[in-house]
Target: Ppx/GppA phosphatase family protein
Amino acid sequence: MRVAAIDCGTNSIRLLVADLSENALVDVVREMTIVRLGQGVDQTGRLAPEAIERTRVALAGYAAQIRELGAERVRMVATSASRDASNADDFRAMVQSTLGTAPEVISGDEEARLSFSGAVRGLSGGEPPYLVVDIGGGSTEFVLGTAGVDAARSVDIGCVRLTERHLHGDPPTPAETAATERDIVSAVDLARAAVPVEKARTLVGLAGSVTTVTALALGLDAYDPGKIHHARITRDQVAEVTERLLAQTREERAAYPVMHPGRVDVIGAGALVLRVLMDEVGAESVVASEHDILDGIAWSLAD
Model:
């Protein structure tokens, strides 16, 4: 069965069209567009009209591909920014008219469960229980489990939210970085109250902040999902990359060949979330996964 999954987050919107069988998911198309839907939501509580329009343009292109490729089932999930916005109805109406189906604005717990499902299927090189951490633009999900989810918690820290809240300098000042760290530590404490992270044997990191940090730690000359997927990097490597990114200007970060242009301004915050949470949960390494909530959405269409 051919399915189409769309994940619309705070920073990006992504499409996966895949052929799904009982035990395998084979990519037909996998795309990502930075639309920054969550622009300003942390301050205003509303989705900006220009952000909704950027998302509409990207979604229209995805809808055309879905029709052309003949997907039998379609599911679109929207996460942190559209959960938090007071004008989320405007976003939902736009999606309905553009895609022909309504988006599911899911809870943080459902987001966590879909992320876990996408990440652990086919995972090699790690020992369960897994702590899956999905660092998004507006929120971060913590999920503990083996075959299924044992505990999950979503907290409101993400690379876009923290950048807009604190990291205004180019490069950020030590005071800005320290304020960001305090927010992350507080959020990790909230997650730990619900998720017994000490039971985890393997930390699995998802989403663009983690995969970009991994690409930088590996010293890749170009972004290569095949080399990043299931690569393991140490806490010291994460700390080194994070320190470097936070000391650099926007122009210096943009010069990395693995850096997506839409991630340049928020990667420092995303890397800091990964570094602080590794310190807080005592993880010596993290396994990066290119498979995440998008894959979980696709697998859910088999039910």
Q: What stands out?
A: The chain has a mean pLDDT of 93. Residues 2-106 form a domain with the Nucleotidyltransferase; domain 5 fold (CATH 3.30.420.40). The chain has two domains: 2-106, 122-293. The radius of gyration is 18 Å.
